[in-house]
Design goal:
Layout (H helix, E strand, L loop, with lengths): L1 H39 L19 E7 L2 E7 L5 H13 L5 E7 L3 E6 L17 E2 L12 E4 L1 E5 L2 H6 L3 E4 L3 E4 L6 H10 L4 H10 L10 E7 L1 H11 L20 E9 H8 L5
Antiparallel strand pairs: 1-2, 1-11, 2-10, 3-4, 3-11, 4-9, 5-8, 6-9, 6-10, 7-8
């Protein structure tokens, strides 16, 4: 009799665990959904796609010299003040000199700014540089040539997660977008999830980019000029090594480094960029 009751108890516990697991999965899915929705909300009536316009000559800008070529980009301190401030200070201090392009997604993007070829930070790295709060703007999108910063960490309690109020942080390493392939199915998907964002959809389709990064990362700069885009193409088309772990970085077979990053105005660097958008 005791054994029979014991079996019933085990069965009840098992059923309870299954039910609780399903509830937790549902809550997790719901909180993820709410979090994504809170990130993605943009008032489309106020959107100005400032990346589509040629910068003014006095616009803050940078010139990145790499072993694969040069990239000139406008910086956006008004839309991403905290990140542009840190990036500018680090670049001027020489932090990015001789750092690595440490991962390439063929044709789509590359990741750069690490002191090590494997994408890691030095053991004595200042952790405060990896705690810049994410800054998103309806005026900035991950179009081709955009400089974006992936999330390094998040903070908040379970209520914050449920309500989508988690604080996201980014750091020193950054992503430079090339473009996904916009085939018919991708175009349909883009239009179906963003019916009220026709001008953004049109810009992605015309110029390329990585739309799934939209409002998920800080966008802090935009490349301009034929030479800049030729360099981005060259880096994102580089042959890569296999990832050391599943989902890990895929570094270029032949080392690619950032030699220097100069900070100035677009007018100073526009000749290098050949003064044209692409």
């Amino acid at each position: 009799m005791a054994l029979k009751n014991h079996k019933k108890t085990i069965t009840r516990i098992f059923i309870l665990l299954v039910v609780m697991t399903l509830i937790c999965m549902g809550v997790f899915a719901c909180t993820n959904y709410l979090e994504q929705q809170s990130k993605a909300f943009v008032d489309m009536s106020k959107v100005q796609l400032i990346q589509l316009d040629e910068p003014e000559s006095d616009a803050p800008a940078m010139k990145i010299t790499t072993t694969a070529g040069t990239i000139v980009a406008e910086l956006f301190p008004e839309q991403a003040p905290a990140y542009v401030k840190q990036f500018t200070e680090l670049a001027e201090s020489g932090y990015y000199d001789d750092t690595y392009v440490f991962s390439v997604e063929k044709g789509v993007y590359f990741e750069a700014g690490s002191p090590n070829a494997d994408g890691s930070l030095d053991s004595d790295a200042d952790g405060t540089y990896e705690k810049v709060e994410r800054e998103t703007s309806g005026d900035l999108w991950p179009f081709r040539g955009a400089f974006c910063v992936p999330t390094t960490s998040k903070e908040g309690n379970i209520l914050d997660r449920f309500t989508g109020r988690m604080t996201s942080y980014c750091g020193t390493r950054f992503v430079v977008c090339n473009s996904i392939v916009f085939d018919d199915s991708t175009k349909e998907e883009l239009q179906s999830v963003s019916e009220n964002a026709e001008k953004i959809n049109d810009a992605f389709l015309e110029r390329g980019g990585v739309p799934n990064y939209s409002q998920q990362m800080t966008v802090f700069a935009q490349a301009y000029g034929d030479e800049s885009f030729d360099t981005i193409d060259k880096i994102t088309e580089a042959a890569t090594q296999p990832a050391a772990t599943e989902g890990g970085y895929t570094p270029p077979e032949d080392e690619i480094r950032i030699q220097t990053i100069e900070i100035g105005t677009y007018g100073e660097f526009a000749g290098t960029a050949e003064s044209t958008k692409k």
